[in-house]
């Protein structure tokens, strides 16, 4: 194992200081409206990478560029970028009118007070079927924004509800990359991991649904349902059906793009040239999100080579004692990896080797270890303001003409908060089966 070097974690500290520190200062200290939203996350990561490049004089700058290139070329990063661009093209094709039609259709048939609860349930089902939280948020967040605008619910509540439901499926789905990474890394069968994970996630989901129903009870304000074109619902129906059926996310989005294009052209909503321009605009709207994924991969590849992650892992391992302490340490281990990488799959892959050692040392079975790694990575990934899920949610809201900051959405992320409570309860109050 590479020797640990705590100083290698300095770029992460620089990023957190610039992004979170200045955001908190502007938003709450200086009372600047949308102060957190004005912090350029790409610039904050560039500064952190610059600090990483100045470290470790034993490695030449050319070698550092090669290391970063290998990190960016990782399969998970390329897959993520392709999903971002394809999802952006889909949003650009269907446009705002399709999301409005879906929202009006839904609100015409259910009482307004149940609209947010329905958003959460739909997001849970779709994410569990598709196995991707980012894809789920891309599909449902525009509908959530439109529901908020016509029902007077806070947009941050509706979007935060969708993010929470998306993380439910990311944690549980059999085809989620986090499930695959955790089970393969710990030598655990997926069905065993699902059984253990389900009884941690279900109470959190039911608690979230109860909170949403309590918050929205008595909301019987009449909603003005404008005219809408029923055929414009077709692309979303096909996409949601494909997601529930568990079809590959790329194929689902391509079906959405093709069907959306056909509907727009058939109904005369736009010309072919405008349709292509919309695809380009939608894909371009994912620029910041894609750049964050690239910069995080580049920065983490340098930190890994410098020995920063080994220092972090060994520190956590020395700190916790006993089986319950070992389980908590395992959860915080993958959480720290997720904060550092902003990618829960990468965090699990990085934490797997030391988690196996901790499992042997503390008597933690493979099923429990896989559950903890997947659950805690999803908790932190759902909450960090610079994670792909949060950035996609903010971008989707912006595409619909609504400006939201990460802190506004974080207030309503009930599911990740309750999942943390449920996980700690499982660690300290539920005995592990042999």
Shape: globular
CA-based gyration radius: 22 Å
Elements, N to C (H/E): HHHHHHHHHHHHHHHHHHHH
Averaged pLDDT: 81
Q: Percent of residues in beta strands? A: under 5%
Main sheet makeup? none
- Report the span from N to C terminus: 30 Å
Number of DSSP strands?
A: 0
Tally of individual helices: 20
Helix-residue proportion:
over 70%
How would the blueprint of this fold be written?
Layout: H1 10-29, H2 41-54, H3 61-72, H4 75-109, H5 115-130, H6 133-151, H7 155-172, H8 177-186, H9 190-216, H10 234-244, H11 249-266, H12 272-284, H13 287-306, H14 308-319, H15 322-341, H16 344-362, H17 366-383, H18 388-399, H19 406-410, H20 414-429
Summarize the entry for a quick read:
This protein has 434 residues and is mainly α.
Task: Give an overview in words.
By secondary structure, the chain is an all-alpha fold. About 75% of the residues lie in helices and about 0% in strands. Helix 15 (about 320-340) runs antiparallel to helix 16 (about 345-360). The longest helix is centred in the first third of the chain and has 35 residues, at about 75-110. The protein is globular and about 65 Å long.
